[in-house]
Amino acid sequence: MIINTNIGSNTAARILANSTSALQKSLKRLSTGSKIASISDDAAGLAVANKLAAQITRSGAVRNNLSNAISYSQTQEGYLEQVGEALKRMSELATLATDATKTLDDRELYQKEFAELNTFIETIKGKKFNDLALFSSTQFDITTGLNDSSGAAVTFALSGANFGTLASTLGITTAALANTALDTIQAAITGLAANAAQVGANLSRLESERASMSVLRDNLAAARSRIIDVDVAEESANFAKQQILVQSGTAMLAQANILPQSALRLIS
Predict the structure, then answer these.
(1) Are the CB atoms for 168 and 90 separated by under 8 Å?
(2) Phi-psi map region of 225: left, alpha, beta (phi>0 left; psi -120 to 50 alpha)
(3) How far is C-alpha 189 from the geometric centre of its chain's CA atoms?
(4) Three-state secondary structure of the chain
(5) Do the beta carbons of residue 192 and residue 80 sit within 8 Å?
(6) Residues 255, 262: Cα–Cα separation, whole Å
(7) Predicted confidence (pLDDT) per residue in 55-107, tens digit
(8) pLDDT digit string, tens, across residues 2-11
(9) Given CA atoms 140, 145, 147, 148 in this order, what sign does their dihedral have?
């Protein structure tokens, strides 16, 4: 029996310290919702989680870019619809002007509306979306993916719509001019249909890309959650366990500190 060194007390104190540390760690996990209370818990897992978080952020940015490109194409679509309506009316006016029973005054009346519609179409050709031309032959790349097999960004060449130019001198003041104008308008309508089809194809592609990016982002978030997020039910059970261990360890440390007192009986 010894007095100077209480082995039992030292052991009980060490176990109590471990239980207290585990209890504090469990408390931090429950309060923060994070499985990794400190980097020492899972250094590799935290590194992977941070990489996934960065990828999630980038995928969100790509989705925003795609949404802006969709808005650009939808603006094109809206203007093309208006141009289509204008061309249909111009075609109607030109056809009316070919009527042999129409007088010069009648055709002059048709010409006024015809000229205004022509000006309207020419004005639309200069429209812009955030200072980007809506109707030109210029293409620009939209990022649709984070990387391909070579590590490069995946892009989609978004083309503008260019529905041609109607001659500013085009008129329908005579039957001959009306026939010439009608041919020009029919060609413009054909070109417009091709451009509308291209814009529609662009929208379909962009919307599909945005949907797939949303799926990717959800899956990345789920993967990160499995690494970083705490299972509350499991951790609550562990918290209760550590509480009991701390309480029992405290009681046992108190008992271990009393043991050397039994030596007094030998010298009393």
Answers:
(1) no
(2) alpha
(3) 36
(4) CCCCCCHHHHHHHHHHHHHHHHHHHHHHHHHHCECCCCCCCCHHHHHHHHHHHHHHHHHHHHHHHHHHHHHHHHHHHHHHHHHHHHHHHHHHHHHHHCCCCCCHHHHHHHHHHHHHHHHHHHHHHCCEECCEECCCCCEEEEEEECCCCCCCCEEEEEECCCCCCCCCCCCCCCHHHHHHHHHHHHHHHHHHHHHHHHHHHHHHHHHHHHHHHHHHHHHHHHHHHHHHECCHHHHHHHHHHHHHHHHHHHHHHHHHHHHHHHHHHHHC
(5) yes
(6) 12
(7) 898 888 888 988 998 999 899 999 999 999 999 999 999 999 999 888 999 99
(8) 777 788 888 8
(9) negative
Q: Say how many C-beta atoms besides its own lie within 10 A of residue 227's C-beta.
A: 18
Confidence of residue 151 (pLDDT cuts 50, 70, 90): very low
Q: Which residue has the tokens 């469990």?
A: 26
Number of other residues whose CB lies within 10 A of the CB of residue 160: 21
Q: How many CB atoms lie within 10 A of CB 3?
A: 9
Residues, the chain, total? 268
- Whole-Å CA distances, 33 to 5, 30, 54, 108, 231: 43, 5, 20, 78, 8
> What residues are paired with 109 via a beta bridge?
none
